[in-house]
Design goal:
single chain; 250 residues; alpha/beta; Rossmann fold; 46% helix; globular; binds nicotinamide-adenine-dinucleotide
């Protein structure tokens, strides 16, 4: 990772924040693109305080111009862009029968449209020298959960987007992969537990490895897919799920 310039959308919190920290302490220079300015600035500051390099760029990934701006800021600040980790996301479970169309649209906008806008903006800066993109999808790209029609559909869309971009951009030596976590112990999950959308004991019982994922479990898999150790891996979704998708018994 030494000196690589890596843009992390959603790097203010949860999986994104942990990914920024681990990549920075492996020597990468980090650009955090997030809606949440206070938390993103704190993430960048804690990396800098620890001797790493990081900047924050305000960005709403549903706006293609702001995605362009974030990718441009990475090159302006650090002279190049080597990788994107697209972590920004939201979770808003709702019964499908009464889901307002605007809520459907905003979920697809953040999870699927935003992933594409960010990938396009960053790939333009990798066009000459190659690079790597990792999308954070979910086990929900494969497994249907109730009250998550828009989330599951959008994540499945990103899993297919991963394959399409991988084969299209391979000739430019841009690798495109996805990581699909099961439940991760982040603010998103804690908000869903507090709102009664999730039962933590049930989740742990459903996961063969018997625990929630930690953000570091996901960050380690991201690091691997970005690294030269994964130089012949593209178009792949790697599920970091403690065995969730493999489990098919009672
Ligand atoms: N937490 C889980 O259990 C879990 C499981 C599977 C997949 N995921 C996925 O992992 C990703 C990260 O989730 P997390 O648990 O770390 O969530 P989190 O809520 O802790 O962090 C999400 C970050 O994304 C940012 N964000 C949201 N919308 C944005 C937008 N439009 N533009 C820019 N930034 C935006 C938020 O400000 C926040 O910093 C999401 O895509 C989520 O769907 C999470």
């Amino acid at each position: 990772m030494k000196d690589r310039v890596i843009l992390v959308s959603g790097g203010a919190s949860g999986i994104g924040a942990e990914t920024c920290t681990r990549l920075a302490f492996a020597g990468a220079r980090i650009v955090i693109a997030d809606l949440n300015a206070d938390q993103a600035q704190a993430s960048a500051a804690s990396i800098v305080a620890g001797g790493g390099q990081a900047i924050f760029v305000p960005c709403d990934i549903t706006n293609p111009e702001l995605c362009e701006g974030a990718a441009r800021a990475a090159v302006d600040q650090f002279g190049r862009l080597d990788a994107l980790v697209n972590c920004a996301g939201i979770s808003r479970p709702h019964d499908s029968i009464s889901l307002p169309p605007a809520d459907w649209a905003s979920m697809v906008d953040v999870q699927l449209n935003g992933a594409f806008y960010m990938a396009q903006a960053c790939a333009k800066r990798m066009w000459a020298k190659g690079g790597a993109i990792v999308f954070i999808t979910s086990t929900n790209a494969e497994a249907a959960f109730p009250r998550r029609a828009a989330y599951c559909s959008a994540k499945a869309g990103v899993a297919m987007l991963t394959k399409v971009l991988a084969i299209e951009w391979a000739e430019k030596r841009i690798r495109v992969n996805a990581i699909g976590p099961a439940y991760v112990d982040t603010e998103m999950t804690q908000r869903n537990i507090a709102a009664g959308n999730l039962n933590e004991a049930q989740i742990k019982a459903r996961i063969p490895l018997g625990r929630l994922a930690q953000p570091g479990d996901v960050a380690d898999a991201v690091s691997f897919l970005l690294s030269d150790q994964a130089s012949f891996i593209t178009g792949h979704s790697l599920y970091v799920d403690g065995g969730w998708l493999a489990y098919g018994y009672f």
